[in-house]
Write a structure and sequence with these properties.
Strand content: 5-15%
Helix content: 40-55%
CATH superfamily: HUPs
Number of domains: 1
CATH class: Alpha Beta
Number of strands: 5
Largest sheet: 5 strands, parallel
Length: 170
């Protein structure tokens, strides 16, 4: 089931990918994805939540050396971190932790931004740390699920706004 070093084809425009990827299963989306984009252009992020296992398993089968980025906000439950360790070992994942700036993270805890200013909290602890790894990536695999909320239910495969980079694919 593992793919070897497949010949990477010339990548089509992101809007044309929607027709190609939507009817495919997640596994076949990944197979097609790595035929179009080299792994270094693919940004994979995971929360290592309970629904992350299948996507991480599929990535481990299709592109086992793919880097998976984990945003460690320092607000996570110990069980989440244990599950991350478990899945990382089980699937032999190449996981890179992304951390917020220590000063902003400490201030967000001291001032309880998650209560008083949740947008600022997410910006400091999730959005800005991820911005540092986005350059150079053309596709973003995040495992967002349409049933989780109304904003996500309207995402396409690939999702994102026109002109954004990277575009999400799963």
């Amino acid at each position: 089931m593992r793919m070897g070093s497949a010949q990477v084809q010339s990548a089509p425009k992101p809007d044309s990918l929607n027709d190609r990827f939507t009817p495919l299963s997640p596994y076949h989306r990944l197979v097609q994805l790595y035929q179009l984009f080299p792994p270094e252009e693919v940004l994979v992020t995971s929360s290592f939540g309970t629904s992350s296992a299948l996507l991480l398993y599929l990535i481990s089968q299709v592109q086992p050396r793919q880097t998976v980025y984990f945003i460690d906000t320092t607000f996570l439950f110990p069980e989440t971190l244990e599950y991350k360790r478990y899945l990382t070992d089980l699937y032999r994942l190449n996981v890179v932790d992304i951390l917020p700036l220590p000063s902003e993270n400490a201030q967000s805890k001291e001032e309880q931004w998650w209560i008083n200013d949740p947008d600022r909290c997410c910006l400091a602890n999730k959005v800005l740390p991820l911005e540092a790894v986005k350059p150079g990536h053309r596709i973003w695999i995040s495992g967002l699920m349409g049933f989780q909320n109304t904003n996500r239910s309207h995402l396409h495969v690939p999702g994102g706004k026109q002109g954004e980079s990277p575009n999400s694919i799963l």
